[in-house]
């Protein structure tokens, strides 16, 4: 049996926000009270029952949550466009840590454990060609920690591709410091080998009138847990968080987005879509949005859709929208997890299209709106090919 | 010459627990060049007949046979039936988000014709067919049926009919929900398809209205899961006059009141 769960809603239909937790569910503390610290010892070792860990299979974390020591390093290669500065800096560099503070023990462990960081600076007032940062895992059985910071200076316009591949266990923090009026587009691809474990926190800090487009594509790895957090420091900030994930048998792919609206007149839009196939394929999407009292004029929407292609797969989807001011432009969320739509399949087959091809059309169509927004053609083509490859296994 | 032979067809639909017989022995033969109108009150099983012939998984054939040019249709998958030359214009066409109409039409034509149509000819062919049905060219870039009005969906069903050129077309209440202008355009599309004389048409309808535009050679009255009376055009006139009361015992008009 396929199992789909949602804390607030089951089934195929979209729903609108009711403004609170349903009866019978545990009372979740306000996201505003969420603990953060750069000190790993300030966090207790999680046992797995904690709210932020309850979906994660702790045994497969290779002790990242329990002080695992680094045994190796990842390889970071930057193919920088003209004008882009790339530096490798030591721990003490004062620019590091400005975009956000670790919000869980593994992020704090990564902060405590990295030895050198990569800083990529996108020059002000300039539009540059895409820059690619390739992170290759340290190898099977190895544990590594890392730190990366992408700085888009004032009015910079740039696309950065983060490409994760290879084997091993890796925990890191990635910072996006988006200057006033800058336009930063990020595509983060998790295309790890089957053994890989990757726990990553992305911290984005948006300046006034900054635009941040963040697309996460998670395909490979035994366990991937990605926590993108967006904060605003000035009005007019605009964040779009897109995600696409495809879990096969045994994979655990978890995405936990948090948009913290503490400044007025900012916008956010979160759209994550996932497909699952195979025994024990498990995906988790937690979408937290907090509109603080000061964040008047906020406009936010978040959506998660999951397509369960076979029995034995499980999708968890939990949108949390907290609103502390009534003076907003709009706020909403929607979440739905559904089986493959047999009526769509019938319709396509009734036009002569063979079943396999019909399934692919439907899944490709499901992901279409996300893929369409990937600004880099080479990346889009590669991902389309990767999704095709995933689909080869559908129904097999 | 194409022939669809339906013999003593019994079909059940299975809900949660119970299985309910809907078609109770349908006999019907449709030859190329013929148009058969199947008329009946709501709930008589007309749509079930169309879906069962097309192979919808919800319906189970419990006995009887369906042959297309002697080939056993019931042994074929849904897509094999379509490639063998069956086409069902659906009453409620399905939306397929993210799949463009252009991509869908070309994929379907490639499957049915057995090879990808020459791109230049194809573009021209689709453009012409869309123009004939008063379909705006921008629909090509829209997702299949997504956000289409009822009339737009029906036009696109007939667009597919014209492009896929089946041997036997089943039109399931294609007239429902159409205003007069749309009905005329859609009927013209069906008549154009019939022009070749090489295809047979099963025209399922509740009302006689569409028969003013599409001439039936045979009219069959469908009630309680089977054909209860067959005749020519005059039978439709009788239904227009008297409704289905004779067959069902209920007052139900066959003309739009």
From TrEMBL, chain A:
Any single GO BP term: iron-sulfur cluster assembly
Biased composition (Polar residues): 1-11
Matching Pfam families: SUFBD_core
Lineage top rank: taxon: Bacteria
Disordered as annotated region, ranges: 1-28
InterPro entries xrefs: Fe-S_cluster_assembly_SufBD, SUF_FeS_clus_asmbl_SufBD_core, SUF_FeS_clus_asmbl_SufBD_sf, SUF_FeS_clus_asmbl_SufD
Residues annotated as domain SUF system FeS cluster assembly SufBD core: 138-366
PANTHER family given in the database record: PROTEIN ABCI7, CHLOROPLASTIC (PTHR43575)
Similarity annotation: Belongs to the iron-sulfur cluster assembly SufBD family.
Record-given protein name: Fe-S cluster assembly protein SufD
The species this protein was found in: Saccharothrix tamanrassetensis
Automatic annotation (TrEMBL), chain B:
Domain of life from the UniProt record: Bacteria
Matching InterPro entries: AAA+_ATPase, ABC_transporter-like_ATP-bd, FeS-cluster_ATPase_SufC, P-loop_NTPase
Keywords: ATP-binding, Nucleotide-binding
GO molecular function, one term: ATP binding
Residues making up the signal peptide according to the UniProt record: none
Stretches assigned to the ABC transporter domain: 4-249
The family this protein is said to belong to: Belongs to the ABC transporter superfamily. Ycf16 family.
Protein name: Fe-S cluster assembly ATP-binding protein
Organism of this sequence: Saccharothrix tamanrassetensis
